[in-house]
Amino acid sequence: MFAIDKDVCTACGECKDCCPCDAITEHEEGYCSIDPDLCADCGACLDVCEFNAIFEYDESAEIPHINQ
Ligand code: SF4
Ligand code: SF4
Fold it and tell me: What is the dihedral of CA 26, 29, 34, 56, to 10 degrees?
């Protein structure tokens, strides 16, 4: 699974534009988040984020609060 660190994200929108599943939402507060129910784990967003705000995590572990 993939998630976005909202403290690092600049809301540039590059990941949202590349997501084939429309799983990424841009928030007015200035960050994006990934809906784990829509994400297909393709990893495309991880590759386009030049700020390294996106990270992969083990879905069997507890979902990080920053993914909410
Ligand atoms: S590409 Fe990175 S910095 Fe840009 S909106 Fe996505 S997570 Fe945020
Ligand atoms: S891993 Fe793929 S499907 Fe999931 S949010 Fe990123 S680009 Fe979208």
Answer: 130
